[in-house]
């Protein structure tokens, strides 16, 4: 009997360890997702944002003032496996596991850009060491807090010989992006969705996106500023994405974990009957 109990205890601990391990290092089922083709949005907002309270235009004269919409496109293609990561340690630098992709034929300031190592994260708090990326000499951590009914994304971008530029977004599900005209400090182009000439879907400030970028750091500008050392220090790159998303009620890993425990308890009862 002691041997049986010891075996059962060891097996239960093994299943528990498997559950924890999968939550920390694996991709967990979250949704089924079908992309909408090249109709998603990229909006670039400059530094300062609507959180700027005095002398805003003079603080950033190169781009004309606080939080202006200064670039973007509406022909972004987005794919996603429907899984989510759950730990900061799931990001291991370039070449690690990814569960999504972003791309566009449109140029950024006349130069192609590439997003890679794209990872979508479940609700939770995350911190990414920008030194892991190598490439550009970024410093510090890039953080995000993903709330209930939100999703987060961390990715690396290559542009104009600058490799592995870290960026994050936190998305609201089924929401508009633009706060244009809402804040006291808004200008006519501040915090607005980019709706330039490349716009096959006719995206505008009233468009409801499947995943809409938010002001996760609370500085008044939608998006999360990129860290120092990169070519876009302090700027906010926002991706607002379209598709069809149906969430999975219970992650598959939970069902596997539960079925494993039930099997072990059944094994225990069988052992007791055989005593």
Would you give an account of this structure?
With 275 residues, the protein is of the alpha+beta class. The protein has one domain. It has three helices and 14 strands. The chain has helices at 2-25, 56-59, 252-273, and strands at residues 28-29, 31-35, 40-45, 69-80, 83-84, 100-103, 113-121, 124-129, 141-146, 150-159, 162-175, 209-213, 236-240, 243-247. It has a four-stranded antiparallel β-sheet, with no helix packed on it. The protein has a four-stranded antiparallel β-sheet with strand order 7-10-11-12, with no helix packed on it. The chain is globular. 38% of the residues are buried.
Question: Secondary-structure blueprint of this entry?
Answer:
Blueprint: H1 2-25, E1 28-29, E2 31-35, E3 40-45, H2 56-59, E4 69-80, E5 83-84, E6 100-103, E7 113-121, E8 124-129, E9 141-146, E10 150-159, E11 162-175, E12 209-213, E13 236-240, E14 243-247, H3 252-273
Antiparallel strand pairs: 1-5, 2-14, 3-4, 3-13, 4-6, 7-10, 8-9, 10-11, 11-12
Helix pairs in contact: 1-3
């Amino acid at each position: 009997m002691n041997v049986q109990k010891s075996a059962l205890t060891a097996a239960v601990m093994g299943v528990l360890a498997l559950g924890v391990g999968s939550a920390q290092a694996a991709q967990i089922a979250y949704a089924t997702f079908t992309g909408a083709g090249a109709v998603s949005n990229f909006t670039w907002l400059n530094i300062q944002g609507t959180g700027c309270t005095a002398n805003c235009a003079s603080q950033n004269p190169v781009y004309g003032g606080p939080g202006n919409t200064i670039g973007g496109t509406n022909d972004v293609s987005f794919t996603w496996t429907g899984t989510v990561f759950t730990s900061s340690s799931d990001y291991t630098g370039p070449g690690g596991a990814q569960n999504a992709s972003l791309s566009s034929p449109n140029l950024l300031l006349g130069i192609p850009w590439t997003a890679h190592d794209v990872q979508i994260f479940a609700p939770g708090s995350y911190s990414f060491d920008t030194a892991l990326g190598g490439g550009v000499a970024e410093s510090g951590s890039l953080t995000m807090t993903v709330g209930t009914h939100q999703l987060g994304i961390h990715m690396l971008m290559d542009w104009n010989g600058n490799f592995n530029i870290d960026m994050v977004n936190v998305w609201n599900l089924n929401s508009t992006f633009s706060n244009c005209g809402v804040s006291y400090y808004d200008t006519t182009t501040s915090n607005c969705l980019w709706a330039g000439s490349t716009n096959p879907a006719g995206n505008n400030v009233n468009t409801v996106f499947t995943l809409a970028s938010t002001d996760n750091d609370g500085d008044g500008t939608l998006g999360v500023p990129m860290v120092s050392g990169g070519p876009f220090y302090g700027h906010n790159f926002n991706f607002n994405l379209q598709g069809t998303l149906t969430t999975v009620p219970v992650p598959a890993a939970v069902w596997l974990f539960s079925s494993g425990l039930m099997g072990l308890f059944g094994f225990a009862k069988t052992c007791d009957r055989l005593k």
